[in-house]
Q: What sequence folds into this?
């Protein structure tokens, strides 16, 4: 039988090429859809205006540094979006839940208008003193995108008792080992009764590219440009312990070598955190799952607010990391 | 004379009707054939073989009949039987047909295709190893990925072989390997399944509405039966691909038995990994061993074992010290099945099965390790009694003894959970042919769990089959299903299982399914089904579980110890509804199927989406599947093609999928804040508010394989080229959002690009 295309019979041609052409057509149609790259567009279908609350109460300290921002759309150009809520349309107050007394907060403007950290709300008077164990409620009313916004949150300040009792070393070599085992800073934390979450904020005091640790087993060497982009994140890290006993006592807090990215001296501020701050810290940065989808963070704020209204007791130590 | 005739008729009529029973086996290797059709031509009564290849036809009056047996790919068997007053035991030997004449087999087959479809349960799909092996996949054939090409079954991504069946989650699928439950049936972080396709004889998949003989899962059953082994001669199959090497050997054990063994190992760690930096050492191996012994004509013993392990080691070189991460996991299963034919009408299977899944993770840099163990020792009996051709019963008993332990120790806390519940179930099913066109299966399953509390439930099941027309069958099914095991899913590493008890309710589901089956010409089948499923007390992983953890007690370092998995899960309810259609052709030079599925699922879970309903991530509205196998030589030569004259064949395989975009959560907005009271800088974070409210771009992929079959005497060699995602489409897995210099940036993360693979299979 001849197999040359030219010599095939008409019958064979039909028998052969009908399925082949059909298959080729299907394949071509499929190929048309099964090529190119999918593109994700911002749909903004779930955007809703929210007031962002960044507020921490500290026992014995005046109420200040309460910052209110607005959220923004995923496709927003931040250079064109006002990030603060309009003070003219905003009223903020703190209520001492024990006495029922309401303390209106006023807006603080920095002398240097370019100093963004200087824009916050505060209670300028002397009547409001934050007490350990007491509860306070923050009330915010404002307007974003022409939409009236209300938010309310209550914090119960941690009980007294928390402090850093001791630390095993004040200086360690980076990834120091002793008898083959890693040695790290260990803080003995005296707990506050009822507080089960303690956060250590670790701040490098003089971070520079020259003092950046480039030998981390988890990371490649960073260029100066990469360093400049990540500098804040590298210089300021956190670690926490959670679910500690409700009772007073001592818990251990480890500061591992991977918490430090510079050969430098560090200010380590440990915070005994209330429930609001605990749930915020446990969820705010983990909203993208490992397989890529997103879920909600948990903010203990009623109404149209996100962020945190928390209370903390801080204590500070200094440690130094030197080259291996 | 008249009186004599009347007496004769009366005598014949009063003679007791008898049975014809036996096993249907493959002539080439004596393997039992599952689902073969056997019937008596003139009486139009018949049966199909069960999982052991056993059939029984009752109520056969004395007389002479033609018995016909048929099975796809085998020559139709015909025998003339004269029934007297004794039951007939007839073991039927079917001879494999040359594949090239399959279409002829069907056209000359006395059992119409619609009868085969009628015999099949609703929502059931049967696949053989041959069918699985012809579907192009990543690197090599894989059972679970092949099942993903059926309508109603979707994957979550290219990176997972997990099955989402009709809106259900992978934990709702029961995997059975020779009757043994398999937990976490995945290799290579979910890329491949633990089932070696070379060792598989048949896979029965039920996408819903399954009978009372199955229980313990809400959504589906994947029942895998491995090869018993060739009882005639040594037979082997060897395969080599870029990923792995595998071998399967079958041989007889004397005159009364056979043994089959398979081994597989990946060698990515030996070939490619040494030349790449920052790649972990990874490999897996697995093996199957199955022995079949015919103790007597009425007693058969099957011993089956499986063992497999995945091993991952990742070492970070740093200075003189090495930091290592180790993870290994795997399944071990074993079963002994005794099959006994008590009487021709009364047949029983009795099992002892053992299943063990374990994983061990070690991260020495953190002084952290994890030990995850689940064992399941099961005793079960499954009996079938055929009262008449119109009425049959199936009943059984099962006891499962679980031992579930999970330990996770890291600085600052420990997780130690342990539970040892016992699960007992009993079932009964009546199969009643109410009238020639109408048949009913009515079943009831009783479940009893004894753990830290006791739970008991009754689960009724009902199925109707009705012959609407000569080539059309209508099927209806409804059932109640319970599940007492819950999974804590994890990405890449093995899931953790836990059992219902005081803190976790049993999950339940109801299925309502209507199916219509129709045949066109001699070998084209059309199946369409609509379904509605409810879910109650289902659980999903709570990504905010940290906020809900409560320590059970504290260790000597005052670190918390957690013992309950309840706070890791969100309870909820849901429903799924959908429509599926499959056009299938199983014989001839062009085989395969075209499937379409419309589906919608909604879950309402506590603490998710402000308790509002939402579609889960795996929800896809429209899915079209195309699976085709084309024998090119045969297409070219048509009827004049003679396989015995030509020693080579070209086979083209296609696997296409198009799915509308899966549900996805777009983070509702972004915000800027400092996250510590003394924060020296502020960063951008995201605040999702509505879950899975948008859809990712559509998913489309076309895989192609080209196989060259070279046949020499009893040897067959098949070099093949497979190209996964031949269009190199960038199917979006997810997106990351960021702001760089104040400008929004969206970065799509894509799934697998084009992946070509070469391999060769050798059979002898």
A:
């Amino acid at each position: 039988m001849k197999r040359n295309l030219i010599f095939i019979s008409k019958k064979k041609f039909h028998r052969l090429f009908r399925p082949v052409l059909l298959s080729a057509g299907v394949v071509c149609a499929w190929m048309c859809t099964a090529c190119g790259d999918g593109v994700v567009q911002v749909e903004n279908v779930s955007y809703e205006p929210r007031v962002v609350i960044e507020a921490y109460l500290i026992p014995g300290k005046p109420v200040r540094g309460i910052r209110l921002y607005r959220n923004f759309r995923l496709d927003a150009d931040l250079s064109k979006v006002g990030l603060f809520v309009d003070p003219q349309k905003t009223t903020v107050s703190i209520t001492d839940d024990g006495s029922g007394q309401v303390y209106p907060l006023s807006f603080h403007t920095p002398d240097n208008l370019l100093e963004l950290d200087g824009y916050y709300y505060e209670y300028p008077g002397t009547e409001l003193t934050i007490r350990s164990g007491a509860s306070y409620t923050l009330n915010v009313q404002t307007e974003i995108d022409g939409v009236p916004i209300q938010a309310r949150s209550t914090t119960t300040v941690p009980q007294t008792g928390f402090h850093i009792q001791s630390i095993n070393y004040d200086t360690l070599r980076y990834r120091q080992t002793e008898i083959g085992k890693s040695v790290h800073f260990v803080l003995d934390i005296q707990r506050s009764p009822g507080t089960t979450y303690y956060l250590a904020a670790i701040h490098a005091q003089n971070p520079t590219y020259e003092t950046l640790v480039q030998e981390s087993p988890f990371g490649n060497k960073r260029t100066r440009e990469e360093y400049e982009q990540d500098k804040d994140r590298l210089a300021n890290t956190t670690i926490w312990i959670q679910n500690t006993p409700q009772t007073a006592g001592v818990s251990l807090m480890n500061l591992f070598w991977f918490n430090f990215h510079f050969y430098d001296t560090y200010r380590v501020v440990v915070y005994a955190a209330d429930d609001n701050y605990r749930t915020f810290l446990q969820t705010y940065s983990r909203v993208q799952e490992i397989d890529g989808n997103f879920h909600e963070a948990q903010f203990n704020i009623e109404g149209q607010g996100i962020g945190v209204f928390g209370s903390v007791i801080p204590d500070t130590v200094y440690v130094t990391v030197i080259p291996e | 004379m008249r009186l004599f005739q009347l007496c004769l008729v009366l005598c014949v009529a009063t003679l007791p009707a008898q049975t014809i029973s036996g096993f249907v086996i493959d002539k080439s290797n004596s393997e039992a054939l599952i689902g073969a059709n056997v019937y008596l031509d003139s009486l139009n009564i018949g049966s199909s073989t069960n999982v052991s290849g056993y059939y029984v036809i009752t109520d056969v009056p004395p007389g002479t009949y033609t018995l016909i047996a048929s099975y796809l790919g085998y020559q139709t068997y015909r025998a003339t039987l004269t029934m007297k007053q004794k039951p007939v035991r007839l073991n039927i030997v079917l001879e494999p047909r040359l594949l090239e004449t399959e279409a002829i087999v069907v056209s000359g087959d006395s059992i119409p295709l619609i009868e085969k479809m009628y015999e099949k349960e609703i929502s059931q799909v049967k696949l053989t190893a041959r069918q699985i092996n012809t579907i192009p996949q990543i690197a090599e054939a894989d059972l679970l990925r092949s099942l993903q090409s059926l309508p109603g079954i979707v994957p979550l991504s290219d990176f997972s072989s997990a099955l989402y069946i009709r809106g259900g989650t992978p934990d709702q699928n029961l995997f059975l390997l020779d009757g043994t439950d398999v937990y976490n049936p995945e290799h290579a972080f979910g890329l491949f399944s633990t089932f070696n396709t070379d060792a598989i004889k048949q896979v029965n998949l039920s996408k819903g509405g399954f009978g009372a003989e199955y229980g313990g899962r809400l959504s589906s059953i994947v029942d895998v039966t491995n090869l018993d082994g060739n009882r005639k001669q040594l037979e082997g199959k060897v395969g080599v691909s870029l990923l792995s090497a595998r071998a399967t050997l079958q041989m007889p054990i004397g005159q009364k038995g056979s043994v089959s063994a398979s081994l597989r190992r990946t060698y990515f760690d030996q070939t490619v990994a040494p030349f790449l930096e920052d790649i972990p050492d990874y490999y897996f191996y697995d093996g199957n061993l199955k022995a079949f012994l015919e103790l007597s004509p009425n007693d058969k013993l099957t011993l089956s074992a499986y063992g497999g392990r995945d091993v991952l080691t990742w070492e970070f070189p740093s200075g003189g010290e090495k930091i290592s991460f180790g993870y290994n996991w795997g399944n071990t299963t074993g079963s002994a099945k005794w099959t006994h034919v008590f009487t021709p009408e009364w047949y029983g299977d009795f099992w002892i099965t053992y299943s063990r899944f374990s994983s061990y993770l070690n991260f020495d840099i953190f002084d952290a390790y994890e030990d995850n163990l689940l064992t399941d020792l099961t005793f079960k009996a499954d009996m079938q009694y055929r009262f008449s051709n119109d009425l049959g019963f199936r009943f059984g008993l099962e006891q499962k003894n679980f031992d579930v332990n999970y330990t996770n120790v890291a600085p600052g806390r420990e997780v130690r959970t342990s539970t040892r519940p016992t699960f007992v179930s009993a079932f009964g099913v009546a199969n009643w042919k109410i009238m020639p066109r109408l048949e009913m299966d009515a079943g009831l399953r009783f479940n009893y769990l004894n753990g830290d509390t006791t739970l008991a439930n009754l689960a009724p099941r009902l199925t109707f089959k009705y012959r609407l027309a000569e080539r059309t069958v209508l099927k209806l099914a409804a059932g109640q299903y319970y599940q007492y095991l819950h999974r804590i899913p994890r990405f890449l590493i093995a899931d953790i299982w836990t059992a219902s008890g005081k803190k976790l309710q049993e999950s339940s589901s109801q299925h309502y399914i209507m199916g219509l089956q129709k045949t066109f010409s001699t070998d084209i089948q059309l199946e369409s089904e609509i379904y509605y499923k409810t879910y109650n007390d289902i659980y999903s992983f709570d990504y905010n579980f940290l906020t809900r953890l409560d320590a059970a007690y504290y260790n000597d370092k005052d670190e918390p110890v957690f013992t309950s998995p309840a706070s890791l899960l969100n309870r909820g309810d849901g429903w799924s509804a959908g429509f599926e259609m499959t056009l299938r052709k199983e014989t001839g030079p062009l085989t395969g199927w075209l499937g379409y599925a419309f589906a919608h699922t909604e879950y309402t879970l506590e603490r998710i989406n402000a308790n509002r309903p939402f579609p889960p991530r795996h929800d896809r509205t429209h899915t079209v599947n195309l699976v085709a196998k084309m024998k090119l030589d045969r297409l070219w030569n048509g009827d004049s093609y003679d396989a015995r004259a030509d020693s080579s064949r070209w086979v083209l395989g296609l696997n296409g999928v198009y799915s509308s975009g899966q549900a996805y959560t777009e983070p509702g907005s972004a915000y800027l804040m400092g996250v510590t009271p003394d924060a020296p800088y502020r960063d951008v974070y995201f605040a999702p508010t509505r879950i899975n409210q948008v859809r990712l771009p559509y998913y489309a992929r076309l895989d192609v394989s080209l196989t060259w079959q070279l046949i020499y005497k009893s040897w067959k060699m098949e070099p093949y080229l497979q190209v996964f995602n031949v269009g190199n489409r960038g199917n979006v897995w997810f997106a990351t959002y960021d702001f760089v210099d104040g400008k929004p940036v969206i970065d799509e993360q894509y799934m697998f690009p084009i992946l070509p693979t070469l391999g060769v299979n050798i059979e002898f």
